[in-house]
Automatic annotation (TrEMBL):
<dbReference type="GO" id="GO:0006567">
    <property type="term" value="P:L-threonine catabolic process"/>
</dbReference>
<dbReference type="GO" id="GO:0004795">
    <property type="term" value="F:threonine synthase activity"/>
</dbReference>
<keyword id="KW-0456">Lyase</keyword>
<feature type="modified residue" description="N6-(pyridoxal phosphate)lysine">
    <location>
        <position position="140"/>
    </location>
</feature>
<dbReference type="GO" id="GO:0009097">
    <property type="term" value="P:isoleucine biosynthetic process"/>
</dbReference>
<dbReference type="InterPro" id="IPR001926">
    <property type="entry name" value="TrpB-like_PALP"/>
</dbReference>
<comment type="similarity">
    <text>Belongs to the threonine synthase family.</text>
</comment>
<dbReference type="GO" id="GO:0006565">
    <property type="term" value="P:L-serine catabolic process"/>
</dbReference>
<dbReference type="InterPro" id="IPR000634">
    <property type="entry name" value="Ser/Thr_deHydtase_PyrdxlP-BS"/>
</dbReference>
<dbReference type="Pfam" id="PF00291">
    <property type="entry name" value="PALP"/>
</dbReference>
<dbReference type="InterPro" id="IPR050147">
    <property type="entry name" value="Ser/Thr_Dehydratase"/>
</dbReference>
<protein>
    <recommendedName>
        <fullName>Threonine synthase</fullName>
        <ecNumber>4.2.3.1</ecNumber>
    </recommendedName>
</protein>
<dbReference type="GO" id="GO:0030170">
    <property type="term" value="F:pyridoxal phosphate binding"/>
</dbReference>
<feature type="domain" description="Tryptophan synthase beta chain-like PALP">
    <location>
        <begin position="104"/>
        <end position="417"/>
    </location>
</feature>
<keyword id="KW-0028">Amino-acid biosynthesis</keyword>
<keyword id="KW-0791">Threonine biosynthesis</keyword>
<dbReference type="InterPro" id="IPR036052">
    <property type="entry name" value="TrpB-like_PALP_sf"/>
</dbReference>
Length: 497
């Protein structure tokens, strides 16, 4: 639909022009720094950063209802830069010209209502938001679209050139980084660091397929992250982990989409996300707070972060009810089927600490919670979800397990509706399903395969096993007629037809 066909009062706002003044805000010393160069930590104190807009209050010159109309009408535009996460341009990257925005089909992933049996089992009405339907099959594309659009902007302004982008990953980050960097070649080359033999084959194939340099490192993700940080401190590389504050901006789009899909009514809503490196939950909180501050939404939803018992430093931190007595202590992780969440020292923990306090204060009560689940619950709930028509990854299983735990603990109530994050496509983690079905998940995961959840193919043979079709050796018409009738009869018997 063309802009001229929209209401006159909306037309001036449909296609945004670059405006605003962004800056890096240190969460430690409160220092403010220019956006003219890539920063990942504060140059004074080394703390992580958020990106703020000095002109954010100007967004309040339009009413919340007007912003709702702008975003709703933008849905009908055929401008690539506004079809993805930058539909919410003014809240994500207001200084970027549309020509610099990189769009590969990310964002606006579907919310699918759970069927009645699954809702009854979980104890509350809920939707899955299927972020596995992003281009690289995970939510990481949101942050990469933002981070790489900004780097593309710097390239187009001749502020950087011959960029080497690096990241540490448990799989999904590397796939997204390599994909978006590949689109911008030859200006950008990518290198990814992965923990050796702790990434699924499907995830490993993605950065390799996108042409990235892939380095496997002994240890776990936290070890890879330390090496990437060392590279970013001593060499001219672009860091694409969630230390990159542009990543957080892009991931805020998850909040904006949920608000829009509920017609901006966030009353009695609960958003459930895995914590992992804590960038996503930080972005979700920040996004909802921005919409709330401008009046686009009237209420802040509850947010529940979920951690496996095998990697739960944030859960342990919030076990202490008194804020001034809390001490964050990294943990040594154990193996987890929710591999993307297997992080013992989240980079964005300082963001979480600050944003949780702001979020609860803006809501006027405690609205952010953290739950802990077992590996058994993660696997079982993920399989239950997929058996009920979803495509939930193991992190999606972790979130559904966390929702069920929150219902059990009285955090979530019957009059509320939850939105559960399936961060990646189920196919990325299908190996764990195979191990479950064959009862061969290693003992250190602490998972026992339940017979009622196991599924396996059954080979059906005719009475005469010599008379079967084969590639290059078809049966005669009479032989195949006998074969087909025999097999059909056996299957009908199995199905009680």
């Amino acid at each position: 639909m063309k802009p001229d066909n929209f209401p006159k009062n909306i037309q001036p706002h449909l296609i945004p022009e670059p405006k605003g003044e962004l800056y890096y805000q240190c969460l430690g010393c409160s220092g403010q720094f220019s956006m003219e160069k890539l920063l990942y930590v504060c140059p004074r104190c080394g703390q992580v950063l958020l990106i703020e807009n000095k002109n954010f209050d100007d967004l309040k010159n339009l009413s919340g209802s007007t912003w709702q109309q702008i975003f709703d009408y933008r849905r009908m535009l055929n401008i690539p830069a506004l079809k993805g996460i930058y539909r919410f341009h003014e809240f994500i990257g207001p200084t970027l010209p549309l020509d610099d925005i990189l769009y590969l089909g990310e964002g606006h992933t579907p919310m699918v209502a759970a069927n009645a049996p699954l809702q009854e089992k979980a104890g509350v009405a809920f939707y899955y938001k299927n972020d596995g339907q992003n281009p690289s099959a995970s939510f990481k594309d949101r942050g990469m679209a933002s981070a790489l659009s900004y780097i593309n902007h710097l390239i187009n302004k001749d502020l950087v050139s011959d960029v080497i982008a690096v990241c540490a990953s448990t799989g999904d980050t590397s796939a997204a980084a390599a994909l978006y960097a590949a689109y911008l070649q030859p200006h950008i080359k990518s290198a990814v660091l992965l923990p050796h033999k702790k990434v699924t084959p499907q995830q490993l194939s993605q950065p390799l397929g996108s042409g990235a340099r892939v380095f496997e490192i002994p240890g776990v993700f936290d070890d890879c992250m330390k090496i990437v940080e060392k590279l970013s401190e001593e060499y001219p590389v672009a860091l694409l982990n969630s230390k990159n504050a542009w990543r957080i901006l892009g991931q805020e789009s998850y909040s904006y989409e949920i608000a829009q899909d509920f017609d901006y009514d966030m009353k009695n809503k609960v958003v459930v996300v895995p914590i992992g490196n804590a960038g996503n939950i930080s972005a979700v909180m920040n996004g909802f707070m921005k919409f709330h501050a401008v009046g686009i939404i009237d209420e802040l939803p509850k947010i529940i972060g979920v951690q496996s018992k095998h990697a739960d430093p944030v859960y342990r931190y919030y076990l202490e009810p008194e804020a001034d007595k809390r001490v964050f202590t990294p943990v040594t992780v154990q193996p987890s089927v929710a591999q993307a969440a297997m992080i013992g020292n989240p980079v964005s923990m300082p963001r979480v600490m600050q944003l949780v306090e702001k979020y609860n204060a803006a809501a006027g009560e405690k609205r952010v919670f953290v739950t802990q689940v077992t590996e058994q619950e993660i696997m079982d709930w993920g399989l239950e979800a997929n058996r009920n028509g979803h495509i939930a990854c193991t992190q999606g299983g972790e979130c559904l397990a966390g929702l069920a735990r929150a219902v059990e603990q009285g955090i979530v109530h019957q009059d509320e509706t939850a939105i559960v994050d399936a961060t990646a496509h189920a196919m990325k983690f299908s190996g764990f399903q195979d191990l479950y079905y064959t009862r061969s998940i290693p003992e250190e995961y602490g998972i026992t395969s339940k017979p009622e959840l196991i599924n396996a193919p059954r080979l059906v043979l005719p009475r005469d096993p010599e008379k079967v079709p084969a590639q290059g050796a078809p049966l005669s018409d009479d032989e195949f007629k006998t074969f087909a009738g025999d097999i059909a009869q056996r299957i009908a018997s199995e199905l009680n037809l």
